[in-house]
Structure formats: structure tokens, C-alpha cells
Design goal:
- The complex is a heterotrimer of chains A (about 375), B (about 350) and C (about 160).
- Chain B has one domain.
- Chain B is globular, with a radius of gyration of 21 Å.
- Chain B is about 70% helix and about 0% strand.
- Chain B is mainly α.
- A five-stranded mixed β-sheet of chain C has the order 1-2-5-4-3, covered by helices on one side. A two-stranded parallel ribbon of chain C has the order 6-7.
- Chain C is elongated.
- The chains are: A alpha+beta (about 375), B mainly alpha (about 350), C alpha/beta (about 160).
- At the A-C interface, helix 9, strand 6, strand 7, strand 8 and helix 13 of A face strand 3, strand 4 and helix 3 of C.
């Protein structure tokens, strides 16, 4: 460093006395990068010139582990791929494995799966709302969001005993049937929760400071979003209808009525608004599912050892809270998968961070990162 | 009617002078009086800051549907005492490649500068450490010392984040000094005096507090004061979610406690100035004057009211980005403050012409 | 569009460029591609048939047949259909052209496949490891991966 300075002074050329790139390392331990994500940010004063995410700090080789476990054993690992939205990943794996083996889950199990995945979507969006507000400096929505999330986690705990990594949605159905008091408690929770979304919108959505921080920041055009593989609410904020539940319906999503919230702005505010509207849609879906729930078996009759046919493969896509979650399973006639690939939404959503933050300020990196609802264990697996 | 405060002060002064006479130091009575007053002021402010920290934690907790501290002492009142003890017995972790003398001096300057602002605040009629006739000028000048402290802290920590925080903070404080001063100019124009005691007496004479004719100046002052103390929504320099701690990242233990307490004392000073200038200081509320509460109590009530407003900003609004912060200060607050000065001058001229 | 329609459309559009098109038992359309026409095939899928979304790009290791298969899944937002494109490459020297210029999402997908399988993507702008440390020596997801002697001890 000293000789660099000296050589510049000796050269006596004013143009060579230019500014150097100010490289700032955010993380892996950082309050705002939502986990162990490292961002190497090249700054020019306060303006960002380049953001390079460095991944791998949370790489637990889940895909390799799944190659050495039987199909039901893999479900436990899928919880850890995205622990904020664990039911969705469970479901994706269960759907892929069922398709490989030709098992069909009974109707009650499908409705129960839908209820729990939508409740999980609510819980995930509430946590996201808190984290997003916290990144921007509004510290109060975090506590309000967690307060509602506690009630959802109580519902989950009542059913499967777990609050974070559920292992509930299994191949062929669900783990256990719901208790009789689940349905009235769920309905009362939904009645309590529906006006709360409006309350949280009051706090943030049209707040002038919030608008200044998020309107026009991190604009993602539709073509760039599709090309970069962005999916889910992040792409719906740019006006692209991309809901897997509508385009490739799984479970009974073609039998429930719900809208796909779209916003045209493409900026952080649009993505925020899409997720707030999605919370309302999820409430409506859960209500319809509770109405259509009928008694029946909660899991299909399956052979004791689940084997996939040789040379079989399937790629199942579902709409998780973050976007498109895809699981590609290759079966080889043994009880263990030959290959399990987890296509996670946050991996692609993180890729566009660099392009979106060039020329903006350091504080905008936080806003954009928060608006994409990125979870690091999904990125690294 | 002689106020209760004047009675107490007179009583205590007599005891002290008797004590000096016993020890044989009557010659230095005036100077010893000032030492005693400063010590009392220091003690009172320290206890008040502890109370304020507890109040912030309780207020923020209730706003976030939590309980706040409720274990240490009744209603958690001794929580700050526990935190202060914890901070003093903490290990003083210092970066190896720091700049030793500035690193040591920065928290001291931050702490002392804000404390010195309390010298001119009148807590009651005659209950002021030193009623300087340049009161407002003194307060604003002294509280600007914190800029030096923050810049020194950021530079001497030998840490990119701290430096960035120091730069941001100094830019912010310097920008918001201007609307702060400009918002006080109409009051000075109206009263014709810089002394805080004189302004309270003016409000007493004319029966109205300055918040009514100068409501715009009140809002500008409160906003600028929040920005001066680096509090949310202007807390970019200490934004935890971006720069971990900003300029005080590398400080721990007592040094960190000094920055922390300095921030609270800055809040007290700004709120006290606001209470004195806009809300009538130790004057009672006109329709509650029959309660005959001492002026000191009225002053504390007004002070707590303004501090409550400033505190609730922090837990309601998101944070402004640095360039938006500067935009807001330079392009919004300063023009409004200047327009306020012009309007006040115009009205004063009209009133003078009319009289 | 049904699977048969998709299959016949691919067979007419890309006659010489694919090795075969099958419909799997799990009702997916799988296209087996050739190395030399891989890029034009994928470009044609994007431009002419509207598969604008590269959903996933991964690799499967078959040590017994001595090949690594690159598996891409495309999704079309316009036609709401999904196809799978597979490309085989020899296991001892796996080199595959890059799809980065067609879909930007392929950038990180291919880096991950390089990192975990050792497949070199020709023409990739930034082919370095993404999950494992930069000085890692082996490719973990290969079937013959063993954890001995791979850590570079700091000297």
C-alpha cells in the first residue's frame, strides 16, 4: 500500500492521483444480510459500482446427502433447505417422489397440504415484512409480524409438534391428521388476521420515508427478470404473471378461486405491495380449503419400502413463498434417489442484485436485498 | 410571591456559606458555590439520563406490544443502573492499529460537550447554573462540538465502516445546524434577547407561548434536533443494519457508554431548549395555574413531553437514506425556515408601525 | 399443449439437431441433444418456440456409462409448457458449450455445475467455483468423490 502511494506521488501526474476503489465487505456476519451471505461491494464514495455475492458459507451439501438417504429420510433434509418456508419444500419433494413412484395422495391429504402450505406462506411473508422494515430502519413492524407468526406457529405445533422444521408433508400424504380443534382455531385466526394486514399497510405502505426508500429503487424490467430466472413475487412486481399455482396447478389449486397480485412498477415498492396482497389471497385460499375439507384418509397406501422405477426422473415445480421451487429427482430402482436437485428461488433472485444496485447507494443494497425476500440456506443448500 | 425554588436555593446557599465559614474558605465562597452547582447538575443529569434510558425502553416496548424491562427493580427502573455497571466492568477491547490519543479523547469530547449545554437552561425562576446573556448562541455552539468527536472517533478507529459512519454523521450534523439556528431566529427577533431566561420572561409577560405564533419553527426545530442527536429517522451514522455501529463500532465498555450517554444528554439539551423557547419553560399551563405547582415541575413535565415525541419518532419511521437526508435538510427545511423568518419580520414591522 | 403436440412440434422444427425426443413414463417431454447443435437448438427453443425461462440447469453423473448428463428444464410463460433437454458428455473430459448468452440465469447454474461436477462450460465469462472455496481441489457431487487428501493445508 505504501509503495503504491509512493509510486503515485513520484509519477507527479495529477490524473494518476485519482481515487481508488473502496471495497467494503459486508458479512458473512452482518445484521442485515439475512444469514451468512457475504457481499463484496465496490464503492465510489457512497455509490455502488459493483456488488459481488460470495456464496457457500451455508453450503451443507444437502443434494449429496439426499443421494445417500431413502426417499422418506430425505424429507427431513428438505426442511432445512428453506427453514422459513419448510412446508413448501417438503411439498415439492413429496410431489416429485410421488410422481416418480406413481403414488397419489388422497383428497383430504391434498386439502390439508394446501392449508398448511398457505399458512406457511403467511408466516414467511410476515417474517419477511419484519425483516424488510428492519433493514430500512422501521423497527416496529418486525414485532407485529412476529406476533402474528406466533399464532401460525401455534397452529403448526398443534398439528405436528414442530415450530420451524416440520417434516409434516410426507410422500403419499401428510404425517398425521389434524386435531378437531384445528379448524375453529384456524378460522378464528384468519378472522383476527385479515384486518391486521391493512394495519401493517397503514404503517409502511404510504409512509413518505418508506416511499422515498423504495419507490424507483432497484427497478427490474420484465424481460430481464425472466431472462435471469427471477420468479415468484419478485417477478410479479414487474408485471409478469408467473404463479406456478395458476400455470401448472398442483394439489387442488385449480379448484380454489384466487387472484394473482401483479404490480407494474418493478421497484422495491411493487415487490412489497405484491407480497402484502399475497397475504390477503392466502387468507382467502385457506378459508376455501377449510370449507372444502372432508373426512377421509390422510395418507395413501404405500409399499413399506418406497422404490422408484429404474431410469425414472421428474422435475416438479411449486410456488413457494419466495418463488419457484423446483425439485428434480432421478430414480434408479433403489430406495435412494440417484440425484436430487433443489432449484431454489433465492439463488436466481440473488443473481440480479448486482445489476440492480449499480449506481445506487449502499443503503439501497439493503432495500433491494430485502425486497427480494432472500434466504441464504436456499441459496447455498 | 417568592417561588418554592428560590426558597430552596436560598436555604441551601445559606447552609453552604455557613459550612465554608466553618472550614475557613469564605473567601472562595462564590467559586465553591459554582463547583457545588456543577456537581449537583452533573448528578441530576446522570440520574435523569438513567431514567430516560428506562423510559425509552418502556415506551418502545409498549409501542411494539412488548413489556420492556420489568425485572430489575420495581417496574424495571434499576435496569439502566445494571446496564451501566455492566458497561463499566466490560473489557475495553481496542483495535491494535488505532490512533491512540484521538481514540481516547473522542468519547470524552462527545460527553463533555453535550453536558456543557445544560449550563444555561433555566429549570425554574432563578434556578440556572449561569444565565449567560448569549444563552442560545452558547448552546448551539457547544453542541456542535460533537461533530469533532464523531469525526475523530471514526478516523481513529482504523475501520472502514467507522470512517464511513463518521463522514455521514458529520455531514448530517453540519447540514442540520443551519435549519436549527434559522428556526430560532424568529424568536430572537421577537424577544430581542439571546438569554433563555429572558425569553421565558417574555413569554410570561405576553401570556402566550411561542409555540402558537411559531409553530412552523417548532416543527423545524424538533426535526433538526433529532437529526443533530443522530436519532432515527436520521440515524444513518449508527444504522445497525448497514454499518453495524457506525462511528462507535470499535468502542466498548465505558467509552461506548460515554457516546451513548452523550446522545441522551443531547436529546435532553435540545428538548430543554425547545421546552424553554416554545413551551414557556417553567411557566405553568395557563388554565392549570391554580394548582400552584413549582415551576420546576412544569419544566420537567414539558421536557418529558417533548422527549416522548422525539422518542416515538424512532420506533415509527424507517430510516432516511443519506442523500435523501441531505436533500430534506437543505432543500426543504432551510427554505421553510427562511420563509418563516421573512414572515415573522414582516409581521413585526407591521406591529411596530401600528403601535 | 399436450405432450404429443409438443413432441411433434419439436421433431418438425429441429429435425437434424436432436438425437431423439421421448415422452417419459412420468409424462415429461425429454429432448436428447447433440453437442454440436446444442447452442442452436437452445436458441431455437427460446426464440421460435417461446421457452423464455430457464428453470434449472444441472448435471447427473453416470459413472457406469462413463458420462455426465447436463439436464436443462425450460418453461414457457407463453405456452405454459415445460420441456427437458439433455446433453451427454464424456466423464473424463466433460466440455459443454455455455448457455449464458441465451439465458443469463445459466451463469450461476453453470458455475455450480462446474464447481460440483467439474464440467467445463466453453465460452463462460466467469467460470469459477461458487459454493466451495476457490482453492478446493475435487468436485463433490461426483459419484466417486471421497474425502481424503483434498484440503489444501495452509503453508
Amino acid at each position: 500500500m505504501t509503495d503504491l502511494l509512493l509510486s503515485r506521488v513520484k509519477a507527479d501526474d495529477l490524473s494518476r492521483l485519482g481515487t481508488d476503489d473502496y471495497v467494503v465487505n459486508m458479512g458473512p456476519q452482518h445484521p442485515a444480510t439475512h444469514g451468512v451471505l457475504r457481499l463484496v461491494v465496490k464503492l465510489d464514495g457512497e455509490t455502488v459500482k459493483q456488488t459481488t455475492p460470495v456464496l457457500g458459507y451455508l453450503h451443507r451439501s444437502i443434494e449429496k446427502i439426499c443421494e445417500n438417504r431413502t426417499y422418506p429420510q430425505c424429507i427431513t433434509y428438505t426442511d432445512r433447505v428453506d427453514y422459513v418456508s419448510a412446508m413448501s419444500v417438503n411439498l415439492a419433494f413429496a410431489l416429485a417422489a410421488e410422481r416418480l413412484m406413481g403414488i397419489e395422495a388422497p383428497a383430504r391429504a391434498q386439502w390439508l397440504r394446501m392449508i398448511f402450505v398457505e399458512l406457511q406462506r403467511l408466516a414467511s411473508h410476515l417474517l419477511w415484512m419484519g425483516a424488510f422494515g428492519g433493514d430500512l430502519g422501521a423497527l416496529t413492524p418486525f414485532l407485529y409480524g412476529l406476533r402474528e407468526r406466533e399464532r401460525i406457529l401455534d397452529l403448526f405445533e398443534m398439528t405436528c409438534g414442530q415450530r420451524l422444521t416440520y417434516n409434516y408433508i410426507r410422500i403419499g400424504g401428510v404425517m398425521i391428521d389434524i386435531l378437531p380443534e384445528f379448524v375453529p382455531r384456524c378460522r378464528s385466526f384468519l378472522d383476527y388476521f385479515e384486518p391486521k394486514v391493512d394495519e401493517y399497510e397503514d404503517l409502511l405502505t404510504y409512509n413518505p420515508i418508506f416511499l422515498e426508500r423504495t419507490k424507483g429503487v432497484g427497478v427490474l424490467t420484465a424481460e430481464e427478470g425472466i431472462n435471469c430466472g427471477v420468479s415468484g413475487p419478485s417477478l410479479r412486481g414487474s408485471g409478469v404473471p408467473c404463479d406456478v399455482r395458476k400455470q401448472q396447478p398442483y394439489l387442488f389449486y385449480d379448484q380454489v378461486k384466487f387472484n394473482e397480485p401483479l404490480e407494474q412498477g418493478g421497484d422495491c415498492w411493487s415487490r412489497y405491495k405484491v407480497r402484502m396482497n399475497e397475504m390477503r389471497e392466502s387468507v382467502s385460499i385457506i378459508r376455501q380449503c377449510l370449507d372444502k375439507l372432508e373426512p377421509g384418509p390422510f395418507e395413501a397406501k404405500m409399499p413399506p419400502i418406497l422404490k422408484a422405477p429404474p431410469a425414472s426422473e421428474f422435475y416438479s415445480r411449486i410456488e413457494s413463498s419466495r418463488g419457484e421451487m423446483g425439485i428434480y429427482l432421478v430414480g434408479d430402482g433403489t430406495p435412494k434417489p440417484w440425484k436430487a436437485k433443489f432449484r431454489c428461488a433465492s439463488f436466481n433472485n440473488l443473481y440480479v442484485l448486482d445489476a440492480l444496485t449499480r449506481g445506487w447507494k449502499v443503503a439501497d443494497i439493503m432495500a433491494v436485498l430485502g425486497s427480494f425476500d432472500m434466504i441464504v440456506p436456499e441459496v447455498d443448500r | 410571591m417568592v417561588s418554592l425554588a428560590a426558597n430552596i436555593i436560598g436555604f441551601v446557599t445559606d447552609i453552604l456559606h455557613a459550612l465554608y465559614a466553618m472550614v475557613g474558605l469564605s473567601f472562595w465562597a462564590a467559586q465553591l458555590d459554582i463547583v457545588v452547582v456543577v456537581v449537583v447538575m452533573f448528578g441530576f443529569t446522570s440520574v435523569f439520563v438513567m431514567f430516560l434510558v428506562w423510559m425509552e425502553r418502556k415506551v418502545s416496548a409498549r409501542m411494539q406490544s412488548r413489556l420492556g424491562p420489568n425485572r430489575v427493580g420495581p417496574f424495571g427502573l434499576l435496569q439502566t443502573m445494571a446496564d451501566a455497571i455492566k458497561l463499566t466492568i466490560k473489557e475495553d477491547v481496542q483495535p491494535v492499529h488505532r490512533d491512540k490519543i484521538p481514540y481516547f479523547i473522542a468519547p470524552i469530547v462527545a460527553f463533555v460537550a453535550t453536558f456543557m449545554g445544560l449550563v444555561v437552561i433555566p429549570f425554574d425562576k432563578g434556578m440556572v447554573v449561569q444565565d449567560l446573556n448569549i444563552g442560545i448562541l452558547y448552546v448551539i455552539a457547544i453542541t456542535s462540538f460533537t461533530v469533532i468527536a464523531i469525526l475523530t472517533a471514526g478516523w481513529s478507529s482504523n475501520n472502514k465502516f467507522a470512517l464511513l459512519g463518521g463522514f455521514r454523521s458529520s455531514a448530517q450534523i453540519i447540514s442540520y445546524e443551519v435549519p436549527l439556528v434559522l428556526s430560532l431566529v424568529p424568536i430572537i427577533m421577537t424577544t430581542g434577547t439571546l438569554s433563555l431566561n429572558g425569553i421565558v420572561l417574555y413569554q410570561q409577560q405576553h401570556g402566550t407561548w411561542f409555540i402558537i405564533p411559531q409553530i412552523v419553527a417548532f416543527f423545524i426545530f424538533i426535526t433538526s434536533a433529532t437529526a443533530e442527536a443522530n436519532r432515527a429517522p436520521f440515524d444513518i451514522p449508527e444504522a445497525e443494519s448497514e454499518l453495524i455501529g457506525g462511528f462507535h463500532t470499535e468502542y466498548s465498555g465505558v467509552k461506548f457508554a460515554m457516546f451513548f450517554l452523550g446522545e441522551y444528554v443531547a436529546i435532553i439539551v435540545s428538548s430543554a431548549v425547545a421546552a424553554t423557547l416554545f413551551l414557556g419553560g417553567w411557566l405553568p399551563l395557563p388554565f392549570l395555574a391554580f394548582l400552584h405547582l413549582p415551576g420546576f415541575v412544569w419544566f420537567m413535565l414539558k421536557l418529558l413531553f417533548i422527549i416522548f415525541i422525539v422518542m416515538s419518532f424512532r420506533w415509527t419511521f424507517p430510516r432516511l437514506r443519506v442523500d435523501q437526508l441531505m436533500d430534506f435538510g437543505w432543500k426543504v427545511l432551510i427554505p421553510i425556515a427562511i420563509l418563516n423568518i421573512l414572515a415573522t419580520g414582516f409581521i413585526l414591522l407591521l406591529m411596530a408601525k401600528g403601535a | 399443449m399436450t405432450n404429443d403436440e409438443i413432441k411433434s412440434r419439436i421433431e418438425t422444427d429441429f429435425q437434424g439437431e436432436v438425437l431423439s425426443v421421448v415422452i417419459s413414463a412420468q409424462k415429461e417431454v425429454i429432448v436428447i441433444a447433440k453437442q454440436d447443435s446444442y447452442i442452436t437448438l437452445c436458441q431455437g427453443f427460446k426464440d421460435r418456440q417461446g421457452y423464455d425461462h430457464l428453470s434449472s440447469l444441472t448435471a447427473v453423473d453416470y459413472p457406469k456409462e462413463n458420462k455426465i448428463t447436463i439436464v436443462c428444464h425450460f418453461w414457457s410463460y407463453k405456452n405454459l409448457s415445460q420441456i427437458t433437454v439433455k446433453l451427454d458428455t464424456p466423464r473424463d473430459n466433460p466440455r459443454v458449450p455455455t448457455l449464458e448468452n441465451i439465458w443469463k440465469s445459466a451463469n450461476w447454474f453453470e458455475r455450480e455445475v462446474y464447481d460440483l461436477y467439474g464440467v467445463i462450460f466453453e465460452g463462460h465469462s466467469d467460470l469459477r467455483r461458487i459454493m466451495m472455496p476457490d482453492d478446493y481441489l475435487k468436485h463433490p457431487l461426483r459419484k466417486d468423490f471421497t474425502d481424503d487428501g483434498f484440503i489444501v493445508k495452509p503453508s
